[in-house]
Structure formats: C-alpha cells, structure tokens
Known about the structure:
With 384 residues, the chain is of the alpha+beta class. The protein folds into 3 domains: 6-88, Beta-Lactamase; 93-169, Helix Hairpins (Orthogonal Bundle), CATH 1.10.287; 178-346, Histidine kinase-like ATPase, C-terminal domain (Heat Shock Protein 90), CATH 3.30.565. The protein has 10 helices and 12 strands. The strands form 4 sheets. Strands 5-7-10-12-11 form a 5-stranded mixed beta sheet. The N and C termini lie far apart (83 Å).
Amino acid sequence: LRFINRTGAQWYGSCPEALTGRYMRDLALPEAYDAMQDLFDQALKGEAVVSEQILKYPDGRKRNVRVNYIPHFYARGRVKGFFALVEDITEQTRVEKQLAQSQRIGALGQLTGGVAHEFNNLLGIIIGNLELLEGALDGVSEPDADKFVATAMRAALRGVEQTQRLLSFARKQELRPTAVNLTAAMPDIATMIRTALAPNMMLTIDLADDLWPILVDPGQLEGALLNLAINARDAMPDGGTLTIRAANRHISTPTDVPVMQGTMPPGDYVVLSITDTGVGMSDEVLEYVFDPFFTTKPVGQGSGLGLSMVYGFVRQMGGHVDIDTAPGHGTTVHLFFRRAAIPRMCMACPVPAMDSAAPSSYRNAEPTPLPTPARRTGPLSQSG
C-alpha cells in the first residue's frame, strides 16, 4: 500500500501514516480480501475494472462500495501497480432501493385496488342472487337447499372479506376512525388474541401509564393485531412468548423508517410494539413482507394478505410501520399511530374503549371450512 487518504484509513481503524507500506491482505478482513483478490489480479494484468460490492471493514461497518481499479504503468507499458478509487455508495444504494420499493408498492396498490373493486362488484351480484334464491325457496320441499344456499353465501361473504383486505392494502377501504383508549381496550384485545395462540405460548401485555388516545378504526385495529398475533404464532412452532407493548413517543425531527422505505414526520405518536420469540426474518424476506400474496408459509396455510392489510390500514390512518428482525432472533413489529386531537373541553371526558360487540371480519383466527356438496339428484341438480 503506497498511499491511502484519511477517510480510507479510518475505515481500517487507523491513520494513513500507520498503513502506508503494509500489505492489503494484512489489513482487510479475510472475507473482504477474498472478494477483492480477483479484481486485484485483473488490474495487475492491465485491465481497468469497476466493481460494486458490500464489504465489511475493520471498523465494524458494512459498506456498499463502488471501486474503480485503474492500472498504473511504467513508461514502457509494464504494469507497475494500480490505483483503487473507493466510493461509499451505501446511502445512494439505500435511496435507490427506497425508490424502487415505493414504486413497486404503489403499482401493487393500484393493481390490487382495481381488482378488488371489480371482484367486489361480482360478489355483490352473486350475493344478491343468492338472497333472491333463498326467498324463492321458501316453502319448497327441498331439505338440502337451504344448507347449500347458506354455504354459498358464506363463501361469497368470505370473498368480500378478502377484497376488504386488498382494499386495505391499496388504502381505499372505507374506515370509521374514532378516538380509542388503548388502556381500556386492551383487555378485550388480549382475550381475542389468546384464542389464536397455541397452549405452549405466553401472552404478555406491557402498557405505559397515561397513554394518549389514538385515532383509528376500532375493528380494523383489532383485525391488524390479530393478524400480527397469528403471524407470531406461526413463527413460534415450538412455543414462545408474544409481548404487546404500548408507549407514547414524541418525534421531533423527520425519521427514516427503513422497512417502509419512507420518512415519518415529527409529531406525537403512540407506538404499539408486537414482539415474538420466533424464527425471525432475513433481509430478503423483509424486502417483500408487505407485498400482497407474499408468504413464506406452505401452500394452503396462508393467504399472504395479513401484513399487507396491516400496512394499508396503518398508512390509511396516517401512521407508520417498522420491523426489527433477524433470523433466529424473533420479530418486533412497531405500529406508529398519531395521537388523537381531542378538543380541550373534552379532555376531562373518558375516551371510549373499542366496542367488543362491534362487527369484525377478523374476529376468528381460523376460518370455518366450507363443506363440499355431494353429487346429488333432485330438482336442483337438474337446473344445470
């Protein structure tokens, strides 16, 4: 090494004077040196090489770097060595990735919103005709007819639930936000979540004192937490602990939210954190975790709409989602909800908890299987 500037030396935890004259194989971490060795060889053969790599440096940081290897020749053309111009492009890479993911999610939102609306219209026709058929069968002596109509109706209504999840991701769902007191609402939510967990799993609730009220649709909040609980359950096949925490947080400056590839504006938030002790997620999985229909579960064991519904709901409420996870170290999903603005004259009034009797499409953790009608003969079978 003939020359290194001060910034480069800092990456190696030293200063230029201490590094000049030493060999790169003695300075770089083994895995980083192995990644660079072929490029060194090319440059020493007189080839100019440009490479983008992710390298770990002795200062402990991983950096996305773009390196220009430029051969240095003697006067007669023999290679004397090479210059390596190293550019840290970590931030540029992050911004490019943020833009690409934002564009992908935006396109998916437009697509799923359009499909959901069309499918919803078709389901409306099916449900309307089933209701007419139900009325027409009144007084008809056909013992299985009511059962088959009811089964078809349940299937159509479940289709409506799925379109609502798609519309939630696309942020086109009709919501009814109201100020919710999480402290008062949590006992009912905890009871519902316990029914979704396996017997070898523990649920822990940890709420800060004096939580601010949040402005949310109560039924959708309940559905979002249930979806997160089901994901946590599936991530803990050998049992574990699911912890729900809530705390007030004031954010004074715009804050990056890496998993959403966006920025959270300053303000008062209540942060709901759902933590499991499960298998965790890799960076590759995390990149697509909010995409509708993306799932790591076996075929038939997940729709891939749970986290996309959570994402769409929270964004539609003006909130944000962040995820902390690593393979083998569990997962924490943070939901940031804006503090509800309550007029001063109402501050002394208690903020209502969620109505546990309110209709919720997501109250049951597992859907009831739909029976398959047997082949039969009779008046209905002749209708084609």
